[in-house]
Amino acid sequence: MTSATPSLLSPEAAGPAQRSALADLTQETLALTRRLFLQLARRPSTLVAGVLQPLIWLILFGALFANAPEGLLPEGMSYGRFLGAGVIVFTAFSAALNAGLPVMFDREFGFLNRLLVAPLRSRSSIVLASVLYITALSLVQSVAIMATAWGLGYGWPGGAGLLLVLVTLLLLVFAVTGLSLGLAFALPGHIELIAVIFVANLPLLFASTALAPLSFMPAWLGWLAALNPLTFAIEPIRAAYAGHFSLSAVVLEAPYGAVSSAGCLGVLAALALGLFLLIRPLLDRKLA
Amino acid sequence: MTKAATHPVLELENVCKRFGKGEKAVEALQGLSLQVPRGSLFGLLGPNGAGKTTTLRILATLLAPCSGTVRVAGVDALQDPRQVRERLGYVAQEVALDKILSGRELLQLQGDLYHLQRSQRDQRITELIDLLAMGDWIDRRSGTYSGGMRRRLDLACGLLHRPEVLVLDEPTVGLDIESRSAIWAVLRQLRDQGTTVLLSSHYLEEVDALADQLAIIEGGRVIAAGQPSELKAALGGDRVTLRVREFSDEPEALRVQQLVQSCPGVRQVVVNRAQGYSLNLVVEHDGVVEQLRRQLAEAALPVFALAQSRPSLDDVYLQATGRTLMDAELAVAGSRDPKAERKQSMR
Q1: Per the count of CB atoms within 10 A, which of B92, B157, B203, B292 is most buried?
Q2: Which B residues in the span 255-314 are in contact with A, Cβ-Cβ below 8 Å?
Q3: Both ends of chain A: CA-CA distance in Å?
Q4: With respect to CATH, is domain B3-231 assigned 3.30.420.10?
Q5: Domain boundaries, given as residue ranges, for chain B
Q6: Does A10 map to a domain?
Q7: A213-253: pLDDT as tens digits
């Protein structure tokens, strides 16, 4: 204890070296993100299932409606190409909706407490790591779907179109990840969270323009689809796939009016911001 | 010991903690006050549900008290919890590991969360692997570890950043003798090298064997505190355990209690329900035991067993609460609500 050189178990005479808050935040966020990627690498079933499910949708639904009458879809588009945008968005949406599950398991098994007794520079790093991980995961899955769709002859967006696709997906993933993390802290356990995910997933898909255009739907469903955040992600991507990329071009003829690509992105950005502001008090309370 | 060495490194003053609201509210801590001297190995003894875990979780900044003050190494835990976290290592009762990561990866994660530089982190991990004899299995996934391995890894996580204070919640529950001895040895080394160690336990022999000082908690309050030897010596007299037959029933035990209470030199008689309705007596000197035998014989009561011993920590507990630690454990066993406790531990 009194020796000049600290022995193996003696408490450190001086605290850790003084470092910037940003360096600490980066170190803890990267460490937490690395943990999630290590889990994924050793349990790749999440990634495989996340790619396989939308591929099956793409192949089966594409085949089911391959002989749809001409004129059913806007601009004589093939159903496969029409469906591609919906499946890409659904893939990213599903991945983001599951973002809260690892956090919920950490809460239940006490691992979160291990993180909370550490002198984290900001406990936002726990949330930030989840956002980074889910964003990367959903982008990888989406790119895999896009490549498959291209292989099936459903097209590929051009350079600017690809950028639009990525920005749209990022906004959607941020919004839904925020929602899922909020639910992970608000609900009592993983059973309840999985139930919410099950209930939300397919109805949101069917009540969007992923599988059919608005003109194909009864009026009440058309209204629902025109208010559904998934639709605001699907339509700009669909326009990018159709090859006429323009932020000001109208991509959605909703019952309440026409919406451009920029309008859709604005709605998604507002949604992401709104959801993060909404869950922030909850996160502040739970991580305080 | 120098003045600096005896100055408290952990101070809790009049700490209250309540879980829930209304009729279902549980008062876990009711004005608990405690001082742990720097460099000591301090035991927190009490039955399940006494408030030990809540106390340790408050010290680890996982819980905020409803009222009272908490200071760790001079830092107000409520005002500056981050600084407290830098100075304190916490080893929880439930070992929370990420089963899919190896022990080394968990230690690396822990090091990064404490902002250790990579070279410093890796060197420290190597040292702790050697110290806790984890070399053979540290690169295996932690999901395959035994309870003893998990506990050693958890201890390594708590020590990684060289904390001034190490807080351990029931560190040896469910462990085999070898693992328990290994952990005891490390805790003694820690104390000898200057780290303050606070451990909770409901094992009397653990606290007796390890602790320089202890506090007994009951109902969310400290009911006795001091050095184990002093507390035991302060009781005076000898302890006698009496059984008139192997398994008595309560009426018989009460009858014998009434009889021996009248014997001169017998200071206290308690019926020990957990031990087959045996009687725990405090006697003033050896002669009382002979007198006791004669009195039982005159009353035509058999003596199945009669053992005499110096006061133990269980006697300290008995003196302070009027019941043995085991009786206290049994009393709360049926009234605990695992669901509510799980909810309390979840953020």
Answers
A1: B157
A2: none
A3: 35
A4: no
A5: 3-231, 237-310
A6: no
A7: 998 899 999 999 999 999 999 999 999 888 767 888 899 99
